Amino acid sequence: MTPAIDPRRHTEDLLAFLRDASSPYHAVAEAADRLTRAGFTELRGTDEWTGGHGGSFLARGGALIAWYVPEGAPRHAPFRITGAHTDSPNLRIKPTPDTGRAGWRQVAVEVYGGVPLNTWLDRDLGISGRLTLRDGSSRLLKIDEPLFRVPQLAIHLDRGVNDGLKLDRQRQTQPVWSLGRAEQGALLERLSRGAGLEPSDVLGWDLMLHDLQAPGLLGADREFLVSSRLDNLVSVHAGVAALVAAAEAWRTGAVAADAVRIPVLAAFDHEEVGSGSATGAKSPLLEQVLGRSVAVRGGGGEDWARAVAGSFCVSSDMAHAVHPNYSERHDPDNQPLPNGGPVVKINTNQRYATDGTGQALFTAACERAGVPWQYFVANNGIPCGTSIGPLTAAQFGVTTVDVGVPGLSMHSARELVGAADPAHLARALLEVATTG
Prior knowledge:
436 residues, alpha/beta, Aminopeptidase, Aminopeptidase i, Domain 2, 2 domains, nine-stranded mixed β-sheet, five-stranded mixed β-sheet, 10 helices, protease, zinc, aminopeptidase
């Protein structure tokens, strides 16, 4: 019997994870910390890999690949992959950030991903990401102070504001952070000294703004979880929890030794902008890492082909719960609700990779785990979103199912999901990893 995932402890740890994972790089660092405490070993791509059994992970920028190989696992053992992504739509700092007008000092930002811009207005914002130094090394940066704010134009100066946002995107997204004339280098000076560096040490950065309001529980019975970056850190966190629990199950002999599978977490970056980067789902990163994990155990091309042929991927990303004020935008027969369990996402035009086989494998795992599930199908009159599922299915040729925790306000600066659903998802992923 596989170990249980305690819902209360899972939610408490998720709240802490959301607070700390303010950028993809911090999400990877937080996930790596949890894996290290669970006995996993960090590997680097440039090192020689030896052994091949036990828990390992590789972190590269905003992406993380982690896996556990049970003792005695055959070289052709199939993978059970949880796919997720670490990035969220937000406002990112431009390379020449210091700007301003009309006596205000401002910071130039670029819109990253599909951002509902009105949700970022009039919020206290901090800054996080990484600074890259002369030697190519990086330093994580996180300032949880109200340094920035994107101010909304007063209704007296824009009487039609409630008819929709009419200002151009450039003016709409430039935060203020001080009074005075724009001084080139001022922001870098502030950030580098906060990180214990000299401004001259920093030659590059990947920085973004984040909302400072803490994640928490909402509702008459605290049945909702509200936070920034639920899309898709709920899935990243659930994937880590499931992988750690699966490793413990293998170590303690709670899983049948004659049914060896290798649980994997693949958390990619840049999904929100198409996944086309060295750390995105379109990259060869996952194939390279898992291929090496087979080779280091003495496997060859035939072993790799057999492992992939028997593999299964659960692509986990946030799903749309039915909106009570816009229920006509949803499919009339499939309207997921928070706390109803993970959603199986289906689109016959392959915006999601789910087919009947993947659907059956995942829902059977939910049945065994005692986890409820729901379905999402897009309204025929509204274009469907997508995820990393189709990319993984096409590149790897593995059976893939797209799932997710249902929520409201997707891509907003503050999103909402059911408080019970993150643990539901983690339990389902654990079941897939160990018996699916």
